[in-house]
Amino acid sequence: MFAVIKTGGKQYRVVPDDVLEVGKIEGEVGSIVQLNEVLVVGGDTPVLGVPTVAGASVAVEVLDHKRGPKVIAFKKRRRKNSRRKRGYRDEITVLRVSEILTDGAKPTKGPRPKKEKVAKEPATEAAE
């Protein structure tokens, strides 16, 4: 099963367990967020939205908030000693698709537990 969602003015085709980077959305790291703007729900019998599919949503887990690559806008007018350099970095949210929901269902899966780091025990001086 797949879905086409719209967020941040862009459209994404997603399946469960996909990881994607979208424009910044609200939500703390590790929380589950529902995206309600679903344009298509595919599978055995695809459902097309007019403009969205009623009662469909996609549950996603927020993995990280970060900033995108630097974009430099440099303008120069020749022979006029005129230059302008401006730059920016987009705010990005990294998401993992948990499940695709239809008929107004609520998410059944919670956030995945964090992997615990295994701490190495300090070397003891038993080899004396």
TrEMBL record:
Keywords: Ribonucleoprotein, Ribosomal protein, RNA-binding, rRNA-binding
UniProt cross-references to InterPro entries, sorted A to Z: bL21-like, bL21-like_sf, Ribosomal_bL21
One of the protein's GO biological processes: translation
Keyword Cytoplasm attached: no
Domain of life according to the entry: Bacteria
Single annotated GO MF: rRNA binding
Annotated Basic and acidic residues bias: 116-128
Family designation: Belongs to the bacterial ribosomal protein bL21 family.
Record text on subunit structure and interactions: Part of the 50S ribosomal subunit. Contacts protein L20.
Name recorded for this polypeptide: Large ribosomal subunit protein bL21
